[in-house]
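Possible regression after last week's pipeline update?

I re-ran a chain I had predicted before the update to compare outputs. Posting the input and the new output here so someone can diff against the archived version. Not blocking, just want to make sure nothing changed silently.
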Amino acid sequence: MKLMIILLLFVNLFASDSYHRHINKELSHLNLSKKQSRQIKKILKEFRVQLKEYRELKEEIEDKRKDIFLKEIFDTKKLNKLNLTLDTKAHDIENKLLKRIHTILNLKQRIQFIHYFDDWEVE
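New output (post-update):
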């Protein structure tokens, strides 16, 4: 939940001029260069689109899960398949995001970044 709040803050700030200050504030412990900040901004903009798609998928799956629960016979296999679909999508988004961030950061920055690694989970 904490991650989603942080990510939503990032996402909501893309449209404003305060984004550059915000990204530096949130990742200031990494001492990003201007080039790195621009690259991270681009990655996070794309991440925003992926999160929107994920939320839409999650809503669809939640509706299907409710339908399963309301049926006379509870279908565990269908529920597991829905849960796996959602988990796979979340992990895919997270892995792509982290891989792209990894390529931008140097070793020292990556060491600092891992202290907040869990905050970047997609939930």
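Follow-up from reviewer: compared with the archived run. The chain has five helices and no strands. Marking as no regression found.
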